[in-house]
Amino acid sequence: MDLTLNAVKGVAQGDVSHVAGAAALLGVLFHLCICQVEFEFIMFHFMAGSTLAFFGMTYVFGFAKTLILAGSFNAGVLTSIAVYRLIFHRCRKFPGPLGAKLTRFYAANLSAKNVQYYKELAKMHSQYGDFVRTGPREISVLRKSAVPLLYGPNSECLKSTWYGQTGNDPKKCSIHMTRDFNDHRLRRRAWDKGFSIKALGTYEPRIKAKADLFKSQLLNNAGKSMDMSAWSMFFSFDVMGEVGFGKDFNNLVSGVEHSAIKGVHSHMAMLGIMSTVPWLLNVLSSIPGAAAGYSEFFSFCAGQIREKHETWDGEKYPQDIVSWLLKAVKEKDVSASPSPAALEDDSRVVIIAGSETTATTLAGALFYLAKYPEKQKKLQQLVDQAIPGGYSQWSYEKVKSVSYIDDVISETLRLRPALLTGGARETPAKGIQVDETYIPGNTNVVIPIHLIQRDARWWHKAEEFIPERFGERRAEMETDKAPYLPFSLGAYGCPGKNLAQLSLRISLSMIAQNFDISFAPGETGEAFDNEVLDTFTVTLPPLQLQFTPRNGN
Ligand code: HEM
C-alpha cells in the first residue's frame, strides 16, 4: 500500500523514473491476483476498468506520464504472465513449442499461415509426441484411452473455454455454446425430440424430394464438369432449409448460394483463425459493425423465428427442427431455449451445424467414389440388387438394407471428419489420468479427430479408403478397437447424426443408382484432398466431377 501511495505521490510530483518500477510491480501483483480466474469471464470488466483507469489517470497526471505508467504496468503484467506460464503453470511439464506455452496467439499465427491448423497440429505431434501443449492451458492428446475420458458417457469434462467465444451467458447462447452441464442437459431434450424416429419419418420424403431435384440438375449437366463442393452444399442447405425451418432455400434450383449463407461462408477462414484465441472473438464481435458480414444471416434466422411465432399452431405436429425448439418455448418446458436470443442462436446452429457437415461429407464420399472406381461399381451393384426395378422403385427401406452405403459414409467420415481439430473439453478440478500421464484440472484438452482416426497404431492401412473395414472386414481390420468419433460422443455428441445419415443415404443411393461418377478433365482430386481449410467445420476447395447417366435410369 505504501508503495502505491509513494508511486502516486511520485507521479504527481513529476518523479516518473521513481514510479515506473512500482507500476511494473503492481502489474505483477495484479497478474498474481487474477491468474487463477478464467479470464474469459472477467474480460469485459477488465477492459472497462483499464479504460476508466487510463482516462482517470490522464486527467490527474497528464497523458505522457499515464502512458509511461500504463506501459510499465503492462510490462509487469506480461512478464509475470510469461514467467508464470513457463515455470509455474500446472501444464508446464507438457512439451510443446515455446510460443504455444506463452500464448494462444501462437496457434492463431499457425492457423493464419494457410488456415490448416490440423496440419500444424500433426507436425507438433510428430515432434513432441502424444501429449502436446498447444496453448498456455491447452493440451492436444493422441491417445485412444483419452476418448472415453473426454467424450464418453461418464466423462466429467465440460465444454472448454473455446465455447465462451460468443459470450458466457447460457441464457443467451445456443446449445452448442452452453458450457453449464445442467443447462445443456435440459436443453438437449428439446433438440432430441426434433430428431426422434417419428420426426425423422416426416423429414424423409422431403429429403427425397430434394434428392430428386439434385438428380435433375445432374441430368441437366450430364457429362459436364460440376463443382461438387458447391453442389453438395446446395443440396445440404436445401435439406436444412426444409427440415430445419420448413423453408425452401432454393439453392438446387438456382444453382446459387442463398444470399444469407454467402456472408457466413465468406467469413469462415477469418473465423477459423480467430477462434484459436476464443476471448478475442468475443471482444471483436462486441465492436459495433464488426459482425456486419453476418447480419443478413442473423436477420434471416430472426425473421424465420418471428414468422413461426406468428403462424404457430400448437395442435399441429412440428414439421421441422426449429418448430420443435419453439414448441418447448410455447409450452414453457424446462428444455426450452432460455431467451429469444438463445432461440435465435439455436436456429443459426441448425443451419451451420446441420448443413456444412453433411455437405462436406457428401462431397468427400463422391470424391472417394470417383477416385476408387471399383468401390463405386460395388456400391452401384449393391444398390441395383436392392432396387432392381430402377429409380422409380426407390424406397428408403430398400436403401437402408444396403449396408455398404453406410460403410462408404463411415469410411469417408474417418478420413475426412467434418471437425478436424475442434471439440475441446475442460478437465474437472481433480484432473484426469490418461495412461501414464496426469492432465491437471481446468485444462482444455482436445483429441484431434482427423489425426486419431488416421493413426496407424489403431487403424490398419490407415491412409487407405477401405469402406469394408466397417463391413465384412470389420473383425479382420479390428475396427471396433480403433478410436472413432466423427460425431463426437457423450452428452455433447451430435444430436443430428441420424438426420445426417438419412440425408447421406438418400443422396448417395440416388447418385449411385443413376450416374457413373468420374473426375472432370483436368481434375486430379489432389487439391481437394490436401487443401481443406480448418474453420471449426471444414471448408472445402472446389471438386470438379462429371456425372454420366447410367443405362436404364
Ligand atoms: C455428417 C454430418 C455431421 C457431422 C460429422 C457432425 C458432427 C458433429 C460433431 C463432431 C459435434 C460435436 C461438436 C463439438 O464438440 O463442439 C456436433 C455437434 C452438433 N451437431 Fe452435428 N454433425 C453432423 C450433422 C448434423 C446435423 C444434420 C445437425 C442438425 C441440425 C447437427 C446438429 C448438431 C448440433 C446442434 C450440435 C451441438 C450439440 C451440443 O452441443 O449438444 N449436426 N456435430
Automatic annotation (TrEMBL):
Q: Which residues bind heme?
A: C494
Q: Report whether Iron shows up as a keyword of the record.
A: yes
Q: Please name the InterPro entries in this protein's record.
A: Cyt_P450, Cyt_P450_E_grp-I, Cyt_P450_sf, Cytochrome_P450_monoxygenase
What are the names of the required cofactors?
A: heme
Residues of the signal peptide:
none
CDD domains cross-referenced by the UniProt entry: CYP67-like
Q: Which GO terms describe its molecular function?
A: heme binding; iron ion binding; monooxygenase activity; oxidoreductase activity, acting on paired donors, with incorporation or reduction of molecular oxygen
| UniProt keyword annotations, A-Z | Heme, Iron, Membrane, Metal-binding, Transmembrane, Transmembrane helix
Segments passing through the bilayer: 16-34, 41-61
Q: What is this protein called?
A: Cytochrome P450
